[in-house]
Amino acid sequence: MTALKLYNSLTRSKDVFTPIDPRSVRMYVCGPTVYDRAHIGNARPVIVFDLLFRLLRHVYGAEHVTYVRNITDVDDKINARAAERGITIRQLTEETANGFHRDVAELGALRPSVEPRATEFICRGGDDLDMVKLVERLIARGHAYEADGHVLFDVASMPAYGKLARRSLDEMEAGARVEVASYKKGPMDFVLWKPSKQGEPAWDSPWGQGRPGWHLECSAMSAALLGEVFDIHGGGIDLIFPHHENEIAQSTCCFGQERMANVWMHNGFLQVEGEKMSKSLGNFVTIREVLADWPGDVARLAMLSAHYRQPINWTLKGLQEAEKTLGVWFDAAASDAEARPAPGVVEALADDLNTPRMIAEIHRLRTEGGRKALAGTLAFLGFRPDVYEDWKTERAPQAGLPVEEIERLIDARLAARREKDFAEADRIRDELLAAGVTLRDGAGGTTWEVAR
Ligand code: AMP
Ligand code: ZN
Fold first, then answer.
1. Which residues contact 330 (CB under 8 A, 6 or more apart)?
2. What residue intervals hold the motif 'HIGH' region (predicted)?
């Protein structure tokens, strides 16, 4: 097989991927904050890194790959939403996490090997690594300080701070518009631990009852589950700064390692009319809403139609095209086959997950590769023929007219054309179109199909 190449945000280049240990390939991806239904933009990293997970399992063997995706179940947005709805934090996070799992399963994503919840890694007791111990070590090593009940990371203590985002500390400080809390030594110092007020979730710590800052959880969970240095760390491009920069600061300073992960991968934004889809802009569609109208496999293919580092516009046209393409593929594929990717598809994916090339390869496979190879490839990619069949029979659009009536109108139109009454012929074509029926005139006569 050709070498696997991945674009690394750290080096800003597409490099050959060499795992630390090919018998234990380790990947961490930042998962959802569970306060509300995920939107279809949140599904992009899920689908992209699911594809990478499948590729790594193919290349190194399923038993040699560990994929960790966390669930953030401690966050101020969660506290606020639970209070608003009058339910407990646990009820809200359980309900939202369950919904997330249903959504992404329908999108054809495999369950990651481990899905740790942040709250389980705050304070674990014994010698197990957790967030409290990580903060203690950072203080002991001179990278963090306590101030006014908070513990802050001292960015000035780390010369390499800003390397991933390629920003210098001076630039960042000059540009810092956030109001700087008086207890901070430097404006870019970030919170590792903060005190909880009455009624807020709180854990015991050497700094009093409190809770962790957001970035801390990923450093603790990745180290506990994958080790101090692992292979791949992923997430959306908006996480590069400050989230991933701060994860790197915490982990490398705590463990005295040069790196946290060797390869950093970031998916581009899913956009609506040129803007990032996000909860705060209010321009979002939930995964659930998309799945009410489309089978998950169609949404999955639409998502993969653009390369993962490029922005993707989420449009009805994109979904319609994906639906048509999947129909063509499934009609040509054998009804069952073991999941096995065709070599051309593996090669396309090994080139930094080049999904547009992968799609072109599948088209080629359809005409040249045979029904079994096509079916095996689709199964490997997470496309399910049964889901598609159900969709075709249950939800495929129906014409607004009975078939006999459509055929009678087609005959009447042909008769009008023979008599050169083109106005009448066009009128009949429009009448059919209004009922959702499109006509195609060919050498063998006129055929019709129901358009969406
Ligand atoms: P959040 O719950 O906001 O932390 O987001 C969860 C994941 O979804 C992160 O990896 C984000 O980078 C990613 N994400 C959020 N919005 C978008 C978007 N519009 N397009 C692509 N990825 C996104
Ligand atoms: Zn993270």
1. 378, 383, 385, 388, 389
2. 32-42
